[in-house]
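Notes to self after the Tuesday call (sharing in case useful).
The group wants a holo model before anyone commits to mutagenesis around the pocket. I volunteered. Ligand is benzoic acid. Logging inputs and output together so the record is complete.
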Amino acid sequence: LRLGSIAPNFDADTTNGRINFHEYIGDNWVVLFSHPEDYTPVCTTELGAFAKSEPEFTKRGVKLIGLSANTIESHSGWIKDINELYDTNLTFPIIADKERKVAFLYDMLDYQDTTNVDSKGIAFTIRSVFVIDPKKTIRLILSYPASTGRNSAELLRVVDSLQTGDKQRVTTPINWVPGDDAIVHPSVNNDQAKVCKSESKGSSCSFSLTLAFRYFFRSTAS
Ligand code: BEZ
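Result:
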């Protein structure tokens, strides 16, 4: 799977019932993230953080969905623990992928082998993140080692960048956050950039010095 691939469809049991993944996406953005095993310490902190930050994702039209290579029964106990531990109310679905079929379909395993497990049977490592847009196109793929917790703020930042980029035809520089300067997308010509610039006034996308520099650079270069 690569950026730009259509997210493969699948049917699966989740903690919120059986789903068809493409139906679950519907017209929304989706963040799909995965875990090799329930009750693993780093993953537990991540699920607590995702549950806490879910309203921020919802604000952006993003649905969360987790995956862990265990059963529904195991997931239910884990969710109860997480809610107690972090004082959360985890409501998004978690896929029961005991057979690691979805993990395999999405290249989440270290090697192309569903038997790639350690001595305790934990698959190293099913710790991916996919950001999928409403057209069901994969827009971001991340793969984390077991030792390193993910960053929910960074995922929100990426969603903000992708959504701003799609809407305003801009790209965003390093460490960009909404309100910072953005860069005119190379596919935008000077006349279109002028329109973008005038339309952007007062919006959350700032077209100040950086953009002006690029815009004028493009103007004088053509
Ligand atoms: C964890 O702590 O979440 C973890 C431990 C072993 C493998 C994968 C994840």
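Two things stood out.
Residues 201-213, 215-222 have pLDDT under 50 and may be disordered.
The helical segments are 21-25, 41-59, 72-86, 101-105, 152-168, 190-199, 209-221.
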